[in-house]
């Protein structure tokens, strides 16, 4: 529950960055109900914490997450999963988080693991990362956005290929296809990710949250509506102290010290 120490994740901070490390190593971070509840609780707490400006979700070297917990799912009936909204019910918390969330992926990101990474704002991958939606091999289909976010990220051809064959794609292919923003050597994964996260934390949180909201709007609307949404937020930011600070700092050749971080 909300006030107990998490068991299947570890929660740490680095400066203003909140880090959640999935920690179920023997099961390759298979995502069960308890883990997803703990993850959601940790993210919501960071989102509400003024000391935090950005979040990172990561796993182990071998696995970001090998998917939803197949052992737990194996005996579920339709009645169980539909009535209780099983498996998926606590997966949507991450979508309500307003500060940026970066996925730092090494090893397997399969099924629900790939879907979890895609729910993050962007993915930085280690060179050993492997992405896939292997649900078809289990007689099911992706259930946490895989058939929706993957085609938006990589286009229909590759999404159909991955979802229908269940094959994995490596980090190079994932970067070429646009699923991940950067690929780095495994030993540099956290350094690179924290570098990006700490950089984001230096900016005005108001503009950071507006930027995230506006990019996400691109996937929910037509171009004219999206551009209008962006324009409204763009104009609104001229009402903030941080816009004055950011532009004054540039004009006077000094580093901006944003107030709202
Ligand atoms: C439960 C899992 C698991 C999973 C691995 N394990 N993935 N347990 N759920 N998704 C367990 C294995 O059973 C094993 O336990 C241990 O982790 C190590 O895994 P191995 O298979 O021995 O490792 P390896 O040979 O290196 O193979 C790694 C792997 C393979 C290729 C990732 O484990 C694999 O194919 N896993 C399943 C991937 C998958 O199908 N994911 C999609 C799930 S469906 P023991 O006890 O034997 O040591 C899904 C639906 C999403 O995600 C719905 C969202 C709501």
UniProtKB/TrEMBL annotation:
<keyword id="KW-0456">Lyase</keyword>
<keyword id="KW-0276">Fatty acid metabolism</keyword>
<dbReference type="InterPro" id="IPR014748">
    <property type="entry name" value="Enoyl-CoA_hydra_C"/>
</dbReference>
<comment type="similarity">
    <text>Belongs to the enoyl-CoA hydratase/isomerase family.</text>
</comment>
<dbReference type="InterPro" id="IPR018376">
    <property type="entry name" value="Enoyl-CoA_hyd/isom_CS"/>
</dbReference>
<dbReference type="InterPro" id="IPR029045">
    <property type="entry name" value="ClpP/crotonase-like_dom_sf"/>
</dbReference>
<comment type="function">
    <text>Could possibly oxidize fatty acids using specific components.</text>
</comment>
<dbReference type="GO" id="GO:0004300">
    <property type="term" value="F:enoyl-CoA hydratase activity"/>
</dbReference>
<keyword id="KW-0443">Lipid metabolism</keyword>
<dbReference type="InterPro" id="IPR001753">
    <property type="entry name" value="Enoyl-CoA_hydra/iso"/>
</dbReference>
<dbReference type="Pfam" id="PF00378">
    <property type="entry name" value="ECH_1"/>
</dbReference>
<protein>
    <recommendedName>
        <fullName>enoyl-CoA hydratase</fullName>
        <ecNumber>4.2.1.17</ecNumber>
    </recommendedName>
</protein>
<dbReference type="GO" id="GO:0006635">
    <property type="term" value="P:fatty acid beta-oxidation"/>
</dbReference>
